[in-house]
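A quick aside before the break. I want you to see a complete sequence-to-structure record at least once, exactly as it would be stored in a machine-readable document. Don't worry about memorizing anything.
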Amino acid sequence: MLNDSGALVVIIGAPGSGKTRAGKKLAKILDAPLIDTDKVVVASHGPIPELFAEFGEEYFREREREAVANALLEPAVVTLGGGAVLNFDTQADLASHRVVQLTMSKAAARLRIAGSKRPLAKNADEWEKLVDARRPIYDELSSLTIDTSLKPMEKVAREIADWLGTQQQ
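That is the input. The structure line, written in tokens, reads:
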């Protein structure tokens, strides 16, 4: 059963797959706020690469979990960082939400993450290993999957909006 309150939709997926960009466009279509949990963490605690370097991944994941838990309570489009789904409490929370997974090909990843400051996916090979390890979780949690490799984000957002229109409220 889906929540009657809380997040309108949650967007998950691989680093660089366009979650934030699609989320912004979708929020505009739905005339709803966007909550990007990575941006929430950065606003409260500082840049993610610095958090990883100074305090480690576990520290970051704790801050991320707090941001996700709070975001899921809001009537908004919520975008999660690629690794947020690793938390078991987040996985349980997402069971009662409409969840969309964005994917992309390794070729698209090469272009999108080149020169990235992402602490766990600095190049396409690291990205591929990371995504392969997380894919079963992404697949389990999502009800709709969209490959963004060759699709404009406006089209991705429209596809999500159309899908939401078919879901029980």
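Two observations worth writing down. The mean pLDDT is 89. The helical segments are 19-30, 37-45, 48-55, 57-71, 88-94, 106-112, 124-141, 153-166. We'll return to this after the break.
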